[in-house]
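Suppose you are handed a protein chain with no further information: no name, no annotation, nothing but its sequence. What can you learn? This example shows the usual starting point.
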Amino acid sequence: MQHSSATQEIAAHAARLVVEEGLEYGPAKRRALKALGLPARTPLPDNDSLEDEVREYIELFCADTQPSELLALRKLALQWMERVAEFRPYLAGAVWHGTATRLSDVYIQLFCDDPKAAELALINAGVRYEARSVTGVLGHDAEALSIHARSPALGEDIGVHLLVHDLDDLRGALKPDSKGRPPRGDIAAVRALLQG
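A reasonable first move is to predict its three-dimensional structure. Written in structure tokens, the prediction is:
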């Protein structure tokens, strides 16, 4: 029983870090574990538990600001998805799932016949970006092309990350998550969210 209360405590602390500092789930869980002074072997909450805590935190402390911030981020995401439409963009992460705040970055996954084509398109469009290697949707390496994009609605720059995957990864990437939800959405799905 002690483990579950410690795991719950980690989830609650990590949720605050996700919302107030814009941390991703993994780093937030590790930082919460350390901040709470718990043993390194303490079981960490799963992402579903953390997401539930994030939603609860937003409801309690950010209900007046979060909906408009999420809307602004989804509009920015759609703008970038339309710019890279030829590479089959899918929105993922907190902006897709509805738990994003102004501190959240936008994660768009691209599924390309030629993974280098997306980078070339940014170069040809004069878009400044940083490239790095990350773990992709199915555990394969993927290239992340990170951009600082202005959000007029929020009045600040937001990190937009284009994660480039092989086209073959798309089918596996669309399997429902543990809650039965689509884990990411295409342009039509994001437009539907904005109209909803």
